[in-house]
Amino acid sequence: MSFFHVRHENIYLVGVTKVNANAGLVFEFLYKVVNLGRSYFGRFDEEAVKNNFTLIYELLDEICDFGFPQNTESETLKLFITTEGVKSEKNSKDEGSKIAIQATGAVAWRRPDIKYRKNEAFIDVIESVNLLMSAKGTVLRADVSGSILMRAYLSGMPECKFGLNDRVLLEKEGKIGSSPAGRKAPGAVELDDCQFHQCVKLASFDSNRTINFIPPDGEFELMKYRTTENINLPFRVHAVANEVSKTTVEFKVAVRSQFASKVYAQNVVIKIPVPTNTSGAKIVVTAGRAKYVGSENCLVWKIARFQGQAEYLFSAEAELTSTTVKKAWSRPPISMDFQVLMFTASGLMVRFLKIFEKSNYPSVKWVRYMTKAGTYQIRF
Amino acid sequence: MSDAKYFQRGKIQELRTELNSDKKDPKHSKKKTVMKKIVANMTMGNDMSPLFSDVIACMNIPQLEIKKMVYLYLINYARSKPDMALLAVNSFVRVSTLITAVVNNGGRMEQCERSEHFHFWRAIASGFFISWVAASTPIDSERSEHIIQIVASGSESVSSKVETAPQAGEPQVTHILIKTLKKQDVSDPNPLIRALAIRTMSYIQVDKITDCLCEPLRHCLRDRDPYVRKTAAICVAKLYMHDRALVENEGFLEGLRGLLDDENSTVVANAVVALSEIADRSDRFDLNFDFSVANKLLTALNECSEWGQTYILESLLHVVPQEHNDAELLADRVAPRLQHANSAVVLTAARVILYLVNYIQRDDVVNSLYKKLGPPLVTLLHNGPEVQYVALRNILLILQRQPDFLKNEMKVFFCKYNDPIYVKLAKLEIMFRLAREENVGEVLGELKEYATEVDVDFVRKSVRSIGRCAIKIDKAADRCVNALVELIQTKVSYVVQEAVVVIKDIFRKYPNRYETLLTTLCSNLSDLDEPEAKSSFIFIIGQYADRITNADELLSSFLDTFKDETAEVQLSLLTAVVKLFIKRPSVGQELVPRVLKAATEEVDNPDLRDRGFVYWRLLSSDPVAAKAIILGDLPPISTETDNMEGTLLDELLLHISTLASIYHKPPNTFIGGVKNRRLIPSKAFVHRTYNIPTAEVPEGAEEREQEPR
């Protein structure tokens, strides 16, 4: 017997098997159940489970048959498994056939009869930038994992064509000359890898790198990508800690924003770890607010708005209580959290989104960019 | 909604009183509340079975929500408490009465809502009805016959439409069932209901019932609606678990094979997964798809759900390519799946590609396929930690077959401070494997950093990895050893102990290079408390007995606690003392008798005793031979022994993404009743020779020194 579990909020979801099951599939399925739960109940926690236990029994029966995951698209499931319970009688028969076709069709993620008065599509490019910097200031590792979210409010069965400033594609289109690997082609981004929502036609991406799809209705993650080339790090951090005596540690931290001055970052939080026997700290900062948070063993420095091309300083003196056992302080890395709007660390841009539909309606498209911290860590 | 308040332990007696209360309850809202309490308690694992007959009595309440809960209750306890069957016979008659009434009225019962949910629960009801009877069979077949009779007669007496049994003696329940199903099949226009009926029925695995399932199932396999067909396909697999012969004799396997040509891709996917499941368990039936079927499956691949894609990809392992070209073509069409957002699809596609590689002749094609695998597998490291772990364990497998397939990806495997420990340990192993002369500097920098973290397991493995790097990469040995020395000087006990263990191997790998370390070592090893560290240190003393001036003192102090040590430490102590004696007889002559006496007379361990006797006799009969044997050259040490054996690796690569690929063990070592998967030779099969390790030296090879005779 093997047990697979994932944790979400305060509940564990456990898959059990007696066979040599596909572990990737089991975990993906468990994640999917979490997402379904969120989509049905808003929040999927113990309360939600308790409040909807009959519905959950019903859902499980539909999404997993004899241990084989079946249709897990909330769009389809919500047609016949609802929180309201009983549906009225008249639409049962025809509706049933429709649902059945939808649940087994090639476009299981979309109903055919969607109508909007105004056709709009919103695209959010959200990048998480991961950094690991050594105490000497060299970048040990920097990468960006991006996610392109789409909210599609489009009528009918729209065929979408989506274009990025992907270097391979631009070269294919002859827009730029092919450059030797490693050298930066201006305005183009080298993607290490990308993964797509199931609506994207993978075969056509494989053959000519175009991204074609019929989107689900509403919000979904169109693609994920990853890049390690030419990353624009939004912040540089320089930190020094001196263990001046057995009872004092001095900190000096400088943070510099490297994006354009027109752009700004918000909710910047810098956590500077201190030894566990810290009793308090005297802190001076040139911007924002900082305090010692004992429960996290950190000095937390918050800056609500951080303009581009700016530098702020932090200095602190942490007082330690004397301990009998002298154990070396392991110095966990400084970690940083932030959001920078209208900036991508990878330089990725959306070049176009074309929408084709039978009725040829006009549509409005919006694009936003945001870069946030993934694990942004600086050793010192 | 605030149903959560029902999750409190309820007292049976109180619930019973509430359930049977005579108070006016026109909308049944009170009953509903009690039922919710009962089901909630049941979900929490509190035993609600004493309420069986009381709950059954609620069966007749014409309220859908209550009915649902009663069924949930029944399904739960009918399975776990089959012995209660007889107790509830009377109530059960009522249940069956209701069911039959409902069935025979074709849903026209005026007090029941006619709705999808009603149909749904009708299907469940008929399912339950049987399962309940079924549940009682193992106890006492006569008794259950009896129940069935009662049920049957009970339902008959109520419903005028029930046909009488054509043959005497045959339990009438089967007829009711057939009628139920047929009725639903024929009369219910809603495919969801048709599918639900067959799905529920097939969960009930009792001989009498499964016999009757055949006809409707056959019908459903040819249903006009794909939703019903895809459900029926899985039903065949369920039925197979219960009655293999039945499925084989009734031609269901052919039926499933027929569905492979279905116009609907979801149906194809379910048919293929049902067939694979059956083939995995059957001794008589093997799946073997030819190239044309494979082509059809690949066409369906583009149109089915992410799960369906996984099933189809898995089934491609049943295709044995006959031409190199076919294999290349298949691999080409599978490769785009590596870009899928679902990690199950990605990993399973990787499995198919790794399988097909065995049938592809051209090395450039094979290499480009390996190259394609790299980035998507690395991308999986941006998923949740559980999927990351699956990916890491699989990467570790693939690395052993193709050590350079992630050549330039070292950095992605650096540990993040907040990675879960299992992810960190798996990453460390991969970092070690990817370490080469060019990048060992980076790796060492990381490992040194990890060695100062707080998690003991992680720190230990980091220290050990530094040592293993020294052994793996000659040119980096100096740097690694320096790093270890720095760590030893921290005097953190477990760091020092772990360092000693690896330094022993470094000494063996590079004799006469790092002996200057001996002084640092000896001065930092005040408190060893782990057997492995102790025995490593003792080995080092014995090996360098001529250079460590106070070797006799050190060994003597260990000898004082000889009896309390583990066998591992005792064995190395015995050998070390004898080595000391041979190298420096005058220093060792006092210790040798002590250790030999202890080993041969005071310890029960036969290994230790025998080794003691062997030394004793050697030393007393032929000192020259003793010297040649005991101080003989040690076999060379290398890290290549960490690679697994070729055929095992071959097998595990066929199980990418499964549990076997996580445990790194063939499936039959941890589960029973599965067929082994092997590469099937064909004329396209390519025998490649991989760099299989030659030196097979287990760690701690000192036990082998006594084997020359």
From TrEMBL, chain A:
It comes from the Eukaryota. GO terms for biological process: endocytosis; intracellular protein transport. It is found in: Cell membrane; Membrane, Coated pit. GO terms for cellular component: clathrin adaptor complex; clathrin-coated pit; plasma membrane. Pfam families: Adap_comp_sub. Residues 118-379 form the MHD domain. InterPro entries: Adaptor_comp_med_subunit (IPR050431), AP2_Mu_C_sf (IPR036168), Clathrin_mu (IPR001392), Clathrin_mu_CS (IPR018240), Longin-like_dom_sf (IPR011012), MHD (IPR028565), Mu2_C (IPR043512). The keyword Protein transport applies. Keywords: Cell membrane, Coated pit, Endocytosis, Membrane, Protein transport, Transport. It is a peripheral membrane protein. Belongs to the adaptor complexes medium subunit family. This is MHD domain-containing protein. It comes from Rhizophlyctis rosea.
Automatic annotation (TrEMBL), chain B:
Its main location: membrane. Keywords: Membrane, Protein transport, Transport. This is Clathrin/coatomer adaptor adaptin-like N-terminal domain-containing protein. It is found in: Endomembrane system. The lineage of its organism: Eukaryota, Fungi, Fungi incertae sedis, Chytridiomycota, Chytridiomycota incertae sedis. One of its GO terms (cellular component) is endomembrane system. PANTHER family: ADAPTOR COMPLEX SUBUNIT BETA FAMILY MEMBER (PTHR11134). Gene3D superfamilies: Leucine-rich Repeat Variant. Belongs to the adaptor complexes large subunit family. Residues 11-93, 174-622 form the Clathrin/coatomer adaptor adaptin-like N-terminal domain. It comes from Rhizophlyctis rosea. One of its GO terms (molecular function) is clathrin binding. GO terms for biological process: intracellular protein transport; vesicle-mediated transport. Pfam families: Adaptin_N.
